Structures are given as C-alpha cells and as structure tokens.
Amino acid sequence: MTPQPAETQVVVIGAGQAGLSVAYHLQRLGLRMGEDAVVLDRGPGTGGAWQHRWAALRLGSAHRVADLPGMSELGISFATADRRLPARDVVRDHYARYEQHFDLLVARPVEVRAVLDAEAPPAVASRRRAAH
User: Fold this and answer.
1) Secondary structure E strands in 27-81
2) Distance CA 5, CA 39 (A)
3) 106-107 vs 37-40, strand pairing mode
4) What start and end residues bound the annotated signal peptide (predicted)?
C-alpha cells in the first residue's frame, strides 16, 4: 500500500484509463505522485473496471481499448496484444506495467466516500477497504 499524504494539490479518483492518463499528464507538468498528487482506486488491483469483465471477453471482439499516453515507451499496445487472452488479463497486465514504469503510486483499495468543498479548499473523505 502506498502511504497517502495528509495534504495534496490534486486527487485523481480512479485508476482506470482516464485516471492513469491524468496521472501521466500531471507528472509531465511536474507534479510528484504521492506528494503533489495522489491517485485513489477502490479496486484491489490494477485494471480498472476491466477486472470485473467476463473471462470469455477478448480484445477486439466487443470493445477496443485505446493505448494510454506514453504507453509506446514500454513497447506495448492494446492494438497488438494477444487476442487469445482474456481482455481483463491483458488490460490488468498493461496497466500494471504502466503504473510501475511511470511510478504512479496508485493507492488501493481506497473507496472515496465524498468530495467536500465547504468554503475551504476541497477535501476528500476516503477509507481503505480490506483487500479480497
């Protein structure tokens, strides 16, 4: 588990395709992940919502997945992924390599319960979930 700072400038909620893309661009802008910005994800592991897809679903059969920004640096692409493997496994593995390569420090499992803005800087209320 990645420790969460008491205060941070940016909170990204979710480590799916959009959240990982945002985290990548925040780093490019000079924010330090885990300090200036944090990514919180409620899932127990990588893959976003793809973790919960059917094992029979393959990439290209029902859904295309766009590559994340910077993914070409890793030499991987969803366009060239093995179509025989379950999509959820391919997405999980690609996202895990991406998170590690760019040191995105995703905190999980963390369930965001509320985002508050009461005449003060926004605050996020969250709690760690027990890993399954």
Assistant:
1) 37-40
2) 11
3) parallel
4) none
Alpha carbons 120 and 130: distance in angstroms, whole number:
31
pTM of the predicted model, to two decimals?
0.82
Per-residue pLDDT tens digits for 103-129: 999 999 999 998 876 666 666 767 776
Taken in order 43, 74, 18, 113, the sign of the CA dihedral is positive
pLDDT of residue 42: 93
Do 75 and 31 contact (CB within 8 A), yes or no? no
The Cα–Cα gap between 100 and 59 comes to 23
Residue 36 scores a pLDDT above 90: yes
- State the CATH class of domain 10-128: alpha beta
Domain regions of the chain by residue span: 10-128
Q: How far is CA 118 from CA 97, 107, 111, in A?
A: 38, 25, 21
